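Sequence in, structure out.
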Amino acid sequence: MLTSLTLMSCSTILNNLPGVYSLEIQQGNIITQAMVDQLRPGMSKRQVIYIMGSPMLDNFFHKNRWDFLYSAHPDGSEKIQQQISLFFENDQIVGVQGDFRPSSTPVATVSNESSVEIPKRDLDKTLWEKISGLFNISNPEASSTTTSSPKQKSPDNKSWF
């Protein structure tokens, strides 16, 4: 009994030593209220994946239920856990259960992304033409178009390709 008490106290002491670095471990899907507010009844599974990401758990026995979990243990504070389950019928969302509730008013999100049109480059020479120019190698396609001789035959009457 004394040994078990000693071992338990060592782990408590070692976890709280000053100057000892402990990692902040985050696991799962980051879930925000803004993401949950975008969910609407009747959304397809593809739309939900676009908003929430892939589900953390895929239960074989409950194919119409997706579970999103998030767990973090910041330095020196208690463990944070968040969970939300989405329920589907005919590949459309019908219910939400967990730590978050979607808002009743529609949410319009403004995208900060923009698209840029890049003009095509005018290439004088291809990479092969540049390399073959360095070594004075003639272009095999150009030589085959300029010479119109039939295929050469070897002494044993086999054609060269």
